[in-house]
């Protein structure tokens, strides 16, 4: 049993009911003060107290909509019904031909679902599952465990539809997303060291308060809602030959594959996972969801240790191929999208392009390929690091060390050789104390900017030509 104590509040939203009930995003607005004296109310689970002990018990509470022993598959009719219901409440995002088409020798289209109001495809399923609630359940509300996009989507559409939403977020959830959920009107509970503990506690609350638990990647209505992206893709790119879709819990690829394969059976469905989170491939190998350890990854939205049983049962017969991409290529994909598409996409959303950059789909050359850019909620503090990692992966940011004479002019000669190659020095450091050669030498460690990998290798060749002790670190 785990015990934690929190003081927590609900941030109330001021606004007219008719604004919240319609699907017009421009009607959503915040009115009035956010001063805590006027806009705080006790969280509804509190009983005669401003503080309640939050306890995680060992009781196993199962989700009736996600039973591994009796998985539910969705049909094309389910996806069509979802499309009809959410029309007007969710953006129909563009699917444009990319500037990178010539670069990769294919007609490359990007389905830009990161342009949804809350920044991800999760709005499709969230909107539909809320619209499918009975009147009684809509009054009671729903609950979900999420560290990011599902929480944002459910909070926002719950506000629009005037349905109470509670989200349980782990303590590692980005504060920006926690606050955004509060601003959208959700009851936010921060509990658990990871998603597993948050989900377990959310299930406890759902039983205690009569709230419907909504699995963000496996509830059947979630799958149907996510499948509406596939309907839009086939309408926007009718000549499509293949669709590359990021895979975490499996909801997006399951729903989209149903739509795409029913309308055009020849379409190749290719799923992509990070090398540090391969739960769906493991599930496909074993025939059922299995626990798969996940590591720290740029594609944190795909880091699901146990994939959805409904998603697996629906998607497995429809997926043509699953592939795994390296972290360095995810970083490079984010960089390419910023530079060439002027699009800021999170790691999970960029894995499809990463597969192309890594050269994992050579069979698609000359074909019409749609890549789902499914999320854009990258943490701003991490974006700078990701860009630098992408530059390093492309050979445009290089680190090297070289031992030169510590006599006057030694370092000047080095910097002149670097400049003569058209290389820009970004950082430089001298090391004398740990040098193993003579005391009249110095190791100079440089971080430099080059045009590309070929330019970086030309620099390495030049350094080795003139200096005996040279170390180069090229991310290849």
Automatic annotation (TrEMBL):
UniProt-listed Pfam families: PALP
Start and end residues of each Tryptophan synthase beta chain-like PALP domain: 87-375
PANTHER family: ACT DOMAIN-CONTAINING PROTEIN (PTHR48078:SF19), THREONINE DEHYDRATASE, MITOCHONDRIAL-RELATED (PTHR48078)
Family matches, as InterPro entries: ACT_ThrD-II-like, Ser/Thr_Dehydratase, TrpB-like_PALP, TrpB-like_PALP_sf
Protein origin, superkingdom: Eukaryota
Organism per entry: Aplysia californica
Cofactor or coenzyme needed: pyridoxal 5'-phosphate
The protein, known as: L-serine deaminase
Keywords from the UniProt entry: Lyase, Pyridoxal phosphate
Gene3D superfamilies (UniProt xref): 3.40.50.1100
């Amino acid at each position: 049993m785990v015990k934690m104590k929190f003081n927590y509040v609900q941030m109330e939203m001021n606004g007219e009911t008719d604004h919240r009930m319609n699907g017009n995003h421009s009607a959503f607005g915040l009115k009035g003060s956010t001063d805590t004296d006027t806009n705080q109310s006790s969280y509804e689970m509190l009983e005669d107290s401003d503080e309640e002990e939050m306890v995680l018990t060992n009781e196993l509470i199962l989700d009736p909509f996600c039973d591994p022993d009796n998985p539910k598959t969705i049909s094309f009719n389910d996806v069509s019904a979802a499309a009809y219901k959410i029309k007007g409440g969710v953006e129909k995002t563009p699917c444009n031909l990319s500037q990178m088409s010539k670069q990769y020798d294919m007609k490359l289209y990007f389905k830009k679902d990161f342009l949804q109001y809350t920044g991800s495809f999760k709005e499709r399923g969230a909107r539909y599952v809320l619209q499918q609630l009975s009147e009684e359940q809509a009054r009671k509300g729903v609950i979900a465990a999420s560290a990011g996009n599902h929480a944002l989507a459910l909070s926002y559409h719950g506000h629009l539809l005037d349905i109470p939403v509670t989200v349980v977020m782990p303590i590692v959830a980005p504060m920006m997303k926690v606050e955004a959920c509060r601003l959208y009107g959700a009851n936010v509970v921060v509990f658990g060291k990871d998603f597993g503990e948050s989900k377990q506690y959310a299930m406890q609350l759902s039983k205690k308060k009569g709230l419907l638990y909504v699995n963000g990647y496996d509830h059947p209505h979630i799958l149907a809602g996510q499948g509406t992206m596939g309907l839009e893709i086939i309408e926007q790119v009718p000549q499509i030959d293949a669709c590359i879709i990021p895979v975490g819990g499996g909801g997006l690829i399951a729903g989209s594959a149903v739509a795409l394969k029913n309308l055009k059976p020849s379409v190749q469905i290719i799923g992509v996972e990070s090398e540090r989170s391969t739960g769906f491939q493991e599930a496909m190998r074993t025939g059922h969801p299995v626990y798969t350890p996940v590591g720290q990854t740029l594609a944190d939205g795909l880091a699901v240790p146990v994939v959805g049983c409904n998603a697996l049962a629906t998607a497995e017969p429809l997926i043509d191929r699953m592939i795994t991409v390296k972290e360095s290529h995810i970083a490079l994909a984010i960089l390419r999208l910023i530079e060439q598409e002027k699009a800021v996409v999170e790691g999970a959303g960029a894995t499809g392009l990463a597969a192309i950059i890594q050269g994992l789909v050579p069979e698609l050359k000359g074909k019409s390929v749609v890549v789902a850019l499914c999320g854009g909620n990258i943490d701003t503090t991490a974006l700078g690091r990701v860009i630098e990692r992408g530059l390093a992966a492309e050979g445009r940011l290089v680190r090297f060390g070289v031992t030169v004479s510590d006599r006057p002019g030694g370092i000047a000669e080095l910097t002149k050789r670097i400049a003569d190659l058209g290389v820009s020095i970004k950082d430089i450091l001298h090391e004398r104390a740990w040098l193993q050669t003579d005391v009249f030498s110095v190791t100079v460690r440089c971080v430099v900017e080059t045009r590309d990998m070929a330019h970086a290798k030309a620099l390495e060749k030049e350094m080795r030509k003139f200096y005996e002790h040279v170390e180069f670190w090229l991310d290849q």
